[in-house]
Amino acid sequence: MRSMAHIGAALTAIFMLSPLVILVIFCFSESPLLAFPIEGWSLRWFDKAFSDPQFTNAFRNSMIVTGAVGVTSTLTGTLAALALAKLPPRLATATAAALSLPVMVPPLLLGVALLTFYSTWIGLPLGLPAVILSHLVFTQPLVMLMISARMASFDHAAVEAARDLGASPIQSFFHVTLPMIGPSITGGTLIAMALSLDDFLVTFFTIGGGMTLPTLMWGMLRKGIDPSVNVVAVTIMGLSIAATLIGFRLTRYRG
Amino acid sequence: MRQALRTASFQLLPGLAILAGLFLLPLSYFFVVSFWQVRTFRLRPDATLEQYARVFTEYGSTLAWTLAIATLIATVTAAIAFAYAHYCRFRAGRFGDGLIFLSLVTLFGGYLAKIYMWKTILGGTGALNSALMALGLTSGPIPALLFSPFAVIVTLTHYCLPLAILPVYGALRGLDDTAIEAARDLGASGPRIFRDLILAQARGGLTAAFALTLVITAADYVTPLMVGGPSSNMIGLFIQSQFGNRLNSPLGSAMAFVTIACCGLIVLTLSLTLRALTRPRT
């Protein structure tokens, strides 16, 4: 019974991890065929992908979207989290639940609803600005939730002490509040950016003609066999996992 | 106090503006569109239930199939997530944190990349078939691994599992060891502890894991498109195509809202069942 549990957990861990490991292995494989055994190692797919102007263009677009989404959702999410700490508990719970609603809607529905809204009602042209606005909807709640979690164990007496000693609200924010919640803000930002970078469905419907890394990858997958797609996939995976890991580290998030 | 509330409402303003302007308003508009019609390639305001009728008559069997496979995937995923979280919380000792960390790493590993990797793993020359042949379990590649409902189930379970582990583990972490010891000291049996303490504690997390997986799975179209094959058409494919080549957003909207409503009903049923199962008894 006990060994069954060990084996089950190990198999689950292998199941979760193996596709990611296999992807990394294929990236460095010489052969264009995605099959085992690996006959030789090379960096040719990295060369091929990185010298493709479509890749550089998609990479730049992804960085623009991710950067803008990161900055904006951090501002709005942090402000919301600060506000929640001031509200009476019941109102705070209700507001947090309302702001988190978008997380519970499947991305396909969000994507097609925003597409319809932009193009047939408000006449917003599809493109990077539309993608950035759309990503804010599902990244803002994440930043808010991660900072709120930190604020729950926040020592309000420190802020009150600063205020009693004559600090202005702005001084006490920058000298007391910010240093305490700073790591959580950075962490929340990085996780919001990872989510934005990896998003395919919402981006696909709101970008119009342009490309980000996931929509470039989708185009390559639809066209057929080009092993440099592995490199695009690994770039997205590497960047988002790195951002998440640093993010979780900073927020000391544990489950 | 009043001053604090005023500051708070100013601070909430940008967040609420995003929620209202980019979520509530677009979604309400999109819902209204489901009662409209497309005539001569133009969207025309109307008040018709025609699209909803079409969802049930033309796409009824696709919807039922989608909900069935999504329920199966959500059940399997929630069960594996519970087993894994239970192991990490109660059995793994000092490795528990590491195993949870591992699931967190795979959480953001790339949506398209995961689906695409399962396509290569399950393919004719893929890792799974090669391994099975190398072990001598089969003589040739099993073609049914890819382009089948099985491939859809494996791929989506893999995608949703880390997401499902988080809420279950979060719920189990809230359970105090002393409560279990107290129950054991008072003579409660293993199964009794499992049902009345552990399952009762994990209920909220389990429901969240199930709901999250169900909704993501029922509205996915990339997975059935990439690994599903012709027999596993899911409603997401048809929703998506109303905004691509078929250009019928009212029908697409009606499909999406019917799917979400059905998912809501399934989650409600599960949540009531779990509540009845774990109701405290005297």
TrEMBL record, chain A:
SUPFAM superfamilies (alphabetical): MetI-like
Residue ranges of domain ABC transmembrane type-1 in the record: 59-247
Keywords: Cell membrane, Membrane, Transmembrane, Transmembrane helix, Transport
One cellular-component annotation, GO: plasma membrane
Transmembrane feature ranges: 59-84, 96-118, 130-152, 173-194, 200-221, 228-248
Main location: membrane
Membrane topology of this protein: Multi-pass membrane protein
Pfam families for the chain: BPD_transp_1
GO BP of this protein: transmembrane transport
Subcellular location per the Swiss-Prot or TrEMBL entry: Cell membrane
Family: Belongs to the binding-protein-dependent transport system permease family. CysTW subfamily.
Protein name: Spermidine/putrescine ABC transporter permease
Organism: Primorskyibacter flagellatus
Automatic annotation (TrEMBL), chain B:
Principal subcellular localisation of the protein: membrane
A single GO cellular-component term on record: plasma membrane
Top-level taxon of origin: Bacteria
Location in or out of the cell: Cell membrane
PROSITE patterns in the cross-refs: ABC_TM1
Manganese found in the keyword field: no
Keywords for the protein's UniProt record, in alphabetical order: Cell membrane, Membrane, Transmembrane, Transmembrane helix, Transport
A UniProt-annotated Pfam family: BPD_transp_1
GO terms, biological process: transmembrane transport
Topology of this chain in the membrane: Multi-pass membrane protein
Keyword Membrane included in the entry's annotation: yes
Record protein name field: ABC transporter permease
